Amino acid sequence: MKLFWTKEVLLRLQEIEGYISKDNDSTAIKFVDKLISIAEKIVYHPEKGRIVPELSIDKIREIIFKNYRIVYMTKKDSINILTLFESHQSSVIKKR
Asked: What fold does the segment set 2-88 form as a domain?
């Protein structure tokens, strides 16, 4: 199974790292590395994440780490990481 990242997610990772690095560079790198690691493990257990409550679509799920939601779509042979955001920003998810 392959893992794909949207441009939005890659930009969000950069933003998160930039924000945290204002206080501590090494913490920022470790935090973003952890988010990436969690996302990479989804390919081994795609059903592990919960169905996104706002959408109620079985193929769109999320893993929560700290206060971040990693939202992904399961497909037959791939996982697409769709978005990543702080959980208080739930309005970011829109039906497509």
From this structure: YaeB-like fold (3.30.2310)
